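[job 0412] stage=fold_complex status=start
inputs:
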Amino acid sequence: MHWWFEMCGIVGYIGTSKAVPVIFDLLKRLEYRGYDSAGIATIGSSIQTFKTEGSVDDLVSITPDLAGCIGIGHTRWATHGVPSSENAHPHCDNAGNVAVVHNGIIENYIELKDELIGSGHEFVSETDTEVLPHLISEYYNGGLESSVRNALSKVQGSYALAVISTDDPDKIVVARKDSPLVLGLGDSEFFVASDASGILKYTKNVIFMNNGEIGVISREGVEITTMDGARVENKVETLEWTAEAAEKSGYDHFMQKEIFEQPISIRETFSGRISSEGVNLEVPVPNARRIVIIACGTSYHAGLFGRYAIEHFARIPVEVEIASEFRYTDPILDCGDLVIAITQSGETADTLAAIREAGSKDSHKLGITNVLGSSITRECQCILTRAGPEIGVAATKSFTSQLAVLLLSAVRLGRLRGALSAADENDFIYELKQMSANIRRVLNCAPSIRECALLFADAEQFLFMGRGANYPIALEGALKLKEISYIPAEGFPAGELKHGPLALIYDGVPVIAIATEGMVYDKMLGNIKEVKARGAIVIGIASESDTRIAKYVDYVLRIPDTDPWIAPVLASVVLQLFAYYIAYHKRCEIDKPRNLAKSVTVE
Amino acid sequence: MKAVILAAGEGTRCRPLTFTRSKVMLPIANKPMIEYVVRALHESGNSDIVMVVGFEKERIMNYFGNGGDFGVHIEYVEQKQQLGTAHSINQVKNVVGDEFLVLNGDNLVSAETITDITEKHAGGISILTAARADTTGYALVNETDGRVEEIVEGLRLSDVHSVNTGIYVLNSDIFGAISDTLYCDDRGEFGITDSIQRMIDRNYAVHAYGTDHTWVDVMQSWDLLNVNARILEDTTGSVQETVGGTIKGEVAVGSGSIVREGSYIAGPAVIGRDCEIGPNVVIAQSTSIGDNVTIEPFTYIKNSVIFDNVYIGSHSTIKNSVIGENNVIESHFVTESGKDLLIELNGALYHADEIGAVLGDGNTIGSNVSTAAGVLIGTECKIKTGAVIRKQIPNRALVV
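[job 0412] stage=fold_complex status=done
writing structure:
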């Protein structure tokens, strides 16, 4: 028996145009969430379903031109087992009257399935989702909405789902519990998607559905009710992200576009938050005894950087935890703690669960996220990173914006606690204001970074090392390279090398040493000597005015002179480009690395 | 009828500003030049646009996307090598219909300018002309009763003052003439006028129509100042509560920008988003200031264009100057301004009516630096404290 853990995207359309092309378009924009099988269903005279393993393009190639103006679609990504067309959504009941797409996990599906089999239902897939259409047809009572409501009352687990039925053919019924769902309101046409970026091309007016809500979408409009049937007022929000922002704009990859967007995205992050009068950012409980930062993946690396910055500027002890570990270690938290959860998508399941755990222990909570209206913004007060939509699976601009927000938070906390003087804050803000220009200067060096990267494109492994706030940057640099070029790469605190990793060094191994000034620079030079002596080829990342580094390393990649706490941000841009050019050279699927999905909405 | 905007060229005569962006993306009153073309097309009812892009295409495509935000639909065609207007137009062969409108992305036009050709066009090929007293640098259109007899590049004809605006209505017959001319020209650039001339020689009906409406060409970087001043005349003031000091005339200030007490801003002027100005800064007439610009106390700026992300230290005086993106300028920076200067560019001399300095992107300039009138500074230069700049500075130079 397989458990199907899914990181899927669901979509739906009802309106005046043919549904199939719209559904395909919506699915393509969600493909970054997962892409190993896809499917579509529309209502004509009956429900017609097409599904396949592979990408949305594969689905397009097997789907004929269908006339229906109502449809639902799905792209899925499975962590276990082999993707197959049987297991792909949409799933139907035996009569083929009901079709369902679903993102989430039905926890009690085995019991439900046994019951349904007992009453004569036949199942064709191994998925948990398939119980939904059977349940709906089992409880069908003349109206699709009440049937879905009855079915969901039996279900335990998480879901975002969209249902169509030939018995009630002019509507889509949607429901949400713990998986994201957005409705788009166009001109007598309506859209359903797992996140807003898919819908933006068609409309900027959206409703973010809340947990435990059921929506009925017809050509006349949207009606939302709670599970108990109480009417909920439609809360329409207007999104500012333009649909074009989700396009590639002439760049080869979304990742490249997003790297090159950083001078702009970082400005958005700072907009209205810095001036000569100081940092203007609302940070809760400056008198917290301790801060615990919880995150996964790239956001975890940002969290590690945040630890160094907050401890330096604000003198508050900080711990950083990986969300999936934190939850299960019976965490020790109390009302004197501030828990900061960092998640780009705002939907990362482990991080959300961790912040709920913190809430149950009466700790103070703060979220840092890139997506307005995401689940975490409903859980706690959030600071938005404002990096704009990020499509490339490998995080780039969202990471630098997270670093920027953490620097702002650290400085603000430092001021509130009296650990940082107003004049020092003012000096730091002068440098922050130039971060955008300095990132642009790094990007202008892209050709020389590319040249250097290509010398090592065939390397079997890489080591990244840094000290202080450059250590998390080394980890992130290694992660970027692993993610998109599939070259084994590890990041280490440079002082830790002689306690083990030095054994990995042999003649010709490339080592990337982040040696910006201020972060224990002299010790770093010593560590570089250690690896050089054992045959490593060292690529140093150093400030423009650094005249010493060249004697110690084989290649130097320069960043503009700036504050020691901003240099790590610039160094991370260098490493993004370094990884990008190697992956490009190796012809890797940069925007959709194998086995990875953009937002991990299950545990 | 689709409208084709030619936006692939670098615009080498606008260096140093075009080292890092194409000419069509140079800001005028804080909007790229080409946006005025797109808006004029939209206003004149031409919403189906094809942009031919090449040099720094990502900036253009990132800015306009599919055109939705501008009320138009834009598709892009790439010209990989910049081989002149004929080659550029040849790229749209498969995306335009029988007839199509062609404009340059770096000429400012109004909706009326466009209807001056689209409404009069009656088959064949139409060329829009404008009268110029000084025709230096333009192609001349020699016509009799509206029928074009000759297009002449680079020559002065004493009795002809109709110059080619580069705005045409072409039809698909042009592609035959382009392929005849494309590979026989030894200048390395293939002008569309050569192709049109070839059609005239074959007695093809080519008509000229004149316009009195806006048609402004930015030739050299300093022309930006005149065009900017002219466009700023249409500014409508809009100021929010974060703006202190004294505001005279029409001044538009973007969201998140702060103007501190004691500052004096005389319109017409525009200031972008997230700027911090003052206290006690004077911004005089005909000045555009981009986004995220910081201007420290006691600085005076007049008739200038400041791009995004610029820091200007205290006690500076900037007149008739263009400051590119990402410049960091410390205190006491002074640009001298001069009239009727001849400025050398790519080996030729060009005239400037009145000019201070033109700075490319990303320079770092120390305290107490002065520039002589008409100085052009490249990109990513480092100019140390106390330097006096009297001649042109190439890219990435270090001046001590």
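[job 0412] summary: The longest helix of chain B spans residues 33-43.
[job 0412] exit 0
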